[in-house]
Amino acid sequence: MSNLEQVKERLKSALNKVNNKIIDAQKAIQSQHQLETENNELKAAMALLQKEISELKHKIRSIGIEQEQKSLSKQAEISAPEIKAPGSRVRKSIDGNKTDESEEINSKVSLNELKGLVGNKKWE
């Protein structure tokens, strides 16, 4: 082999190595682009999930508030009949029927008595 042939072989080998490095670099660039695309898709999916989580948290809060309101209204319905106005008493009349004494008591209070309770203010 002459020197010229040896130089040709070395150049050919070096060129093959450079071409292989270029191919490897192109594959790495392609992989990087694919990873960036997947990363962007994952970010978009993550944003959608976060939005759904926020909506679910809001729904959970709303359901909790509704249940609390229902519970409070049920408690109010249960305790409402137990509340009696002051001065209202129920008694049995002579014939055995129940009568509400509050009507009798309220009808006996005169305007002058009310004025006395308020402090004799002039009524307009």
Please describe the structure with a list of short key phrases separated by commas or semicolons.
mainly alpha; 5% strand
Could you name the ranges where pLDDT drops below 50 across 5 or more consecutive residues?
Answer: none
> Could you give the order of the helices and strands?
HEEHH
Separation of the first and last Cα atoms: 132 Å
What structural category characterises the helix and strand content? mainly alpha
What's the alpha carbon Rg, rounded to whole Å? 46 Å
Biggest β-sheet strands, sense, barrel: 2 strands, antiparallel
Spatial order of the strands forming the largest sheet: 1-2
Q: What would the average pLDDT be, to the nearest integer?
A: 79
| Molecular shape | rod-shaped
Question: How many helices?
Answer: 3
Percentage of residues assigned to helices = over 70%
Strand fraction band? Answer: under 5%
- Strand count: 2
